[in-house]
Design brief:
The protein has about 180 residues and is an alpha+beta fold. It folds into 2 domains: about 10-40, no CATH class; about 80-175, Ribosomal Protein S8, Chain: A, domain 1. The protein has 5 helices and 4 strands. The protein has helices spanning about 10-20, 35-40, 80-85, 105-120, 140-150, and strands spanning about 95, 125-130, 155-160, 170-175. The chain has a 4-stranded mixed sheet with strand order 1-2-4-3, with helices on one face. The relative contact order is 0.16.
Length: about 180
């Protein structure tokens, strides 16, 4: 991965100098001068180390399995069960609230939560992402549909839906049965 180096302007250096004068360095360290900042080359990011996949027992998804879409009626669920689930009449056995977490921490919490619920044979869970601020919502709410289709999570999830059309900050998940 190539690191793009940004050249500092005189205005950037002046702002940095003002900032450095306004703060006190941590104990045992010295303040970084603007000149030394410009002279140091950028540190390249280390390559991503793939994490070992933890297999989910008895849950298989083939290549032809369609992606999970929030609010879309998936195959494998009869109409009456889908209407109960989609209409919010199927009660969630467990809830996970991701408010205030970073996206990385939220993803790890979601993974742990879903693995535990699936292993305990829980059928319906609710994940609260929050509505977020701004017109596109929060980062967790934007990332959540992508997470559902990752290879670690997709085998456990059968369907996803908002419990109520007006509540976009919460998603109910129908988990696959353990066979």
């Amino acid at each position: 991965m190539a690191v793009r180096r940004r050249v500092l302007t005189e205005k950037d250096r002046a702002e940095w100098a003002n900032y450095v004068r306004a703060i006190a360095p941590l104990r045992g360290t010295t303040a970084v001068e603007p000149a030394s900042l410009a002279a140091t080359p950028p540190v390249p990011e280390p390559p991503a180390v793939p994490r070992p996949a933890i297999p989910v027992p008895h849950a298989r998804v083939t290549r032809s399995t369609p992606a999970v879409a929030i609010g879309a009626h998936p195959g494998g669920i009869d109409t009456s069960s889908w209407q109960r689930f989609h209409g919010g009449k199927l009660a969630a056995a467990r809830r996970l609230d991701l408010h205030g977490q970073t996206t990385q921490r939220a993803y790890l919490s979601l993974m742990s939560f879903l693995r535990t619920a699936h292993a305990d044979r829980v059928r319906c869970v609710e994940v609260i992402t929050g509505r977020g601020s701004g017109e596109n919502g929060g980062a967790i709410r934007r990332e959540f549909p992508l997470w559902l289709n990752l290879p670690d999570i997709r085998p456990m999830v059968l369907a996803a839906s908002h419990p109520h059309a007006a509540n976009q900050g919460s998603v109910r998940l129908l988990l696959r049965r353990v066979r």
